[in-house]
């Protein structure tokens, strides 16, 4: 009764407000355009000449690192599959 009189929030109110905030955030991301650049990537994009002239001096951005790691993981899995196929053919 005291919580009702004081106007305290319940668990249901908290869940409802969080779900509304989540939906608002998703709507903002969808409608804001497709600009996922971080500050670091924006700085590199603003000066592509330096990036083109001396790419070895530029650090990898987070998205470039993710792309390279995905490629590395794919290479490891394909090599493992190829080894398994070779072993299967040698057994048969």
Could you outline the blueprint of secondary structure elements for this entry?
Elements: H1 2-6, H2 11-31, H3 39-46, H4 48-53, H5 62-91
Kindly describe this structure.
Pfam families: CCDC32. InterPro entries: CCDC32. This protein is mainly α and 92 residues long. The protein starts with a helix and ends with a helix. The model has no long low-confidence stretch (mean pLDDT 74). It is flat, with a radius of gyration of 25 Å. It is built from 5 helices and no strands. It has helices spanning 2-6, 11-31, 39-46, 48-53, 62-91. The protein has 2 domains: 1-36; 52-91.
Overall pLDDT confidence: 74
Task: Pick out the low-confidence regions.
Answer: none
The H/E string reads HHHHH
By DSSP (H or I, 4+ residues per run), the number of helices equals 5
Summarize the biggest pleated sheet. none
Number of structurally distinct domains: 2
- What is the helical fraction, as a range of percent? over 70%
The shape is: flat
The total strand number stands at 0
Q: What is the distance, rounded to the nearest whole angstrom, between the alpha carbons of the first and last residues?
A: 77 Å
Structural class: mainly alpha
CA radius of gyration is 25 Å
Task: Tell me what portion of residues adopts beta-strand conformation.
Answer: under 5%
InterPro entries: CCDC32
């Amino acid at each position: 009764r005291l919580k009702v009189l004081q106007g305290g929030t319940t668990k249901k109110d908290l869940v409802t407000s969080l779900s509304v905030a989540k939906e608002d955030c998703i709507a903002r991301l969808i409608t804001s355009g497709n600009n996922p650049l971080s500050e670091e990537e924006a700085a590199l994009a603003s000066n592509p000449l330096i990036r083109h002239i001396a790419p070895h001096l530029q650090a990898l951005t987070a998205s470039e690192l993710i792309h390279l790691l995905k490629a590395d993981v794919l290479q490891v899995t394909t090599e493992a599959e190829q080894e398994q196929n070779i072993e299967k053919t040698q057994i048969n």
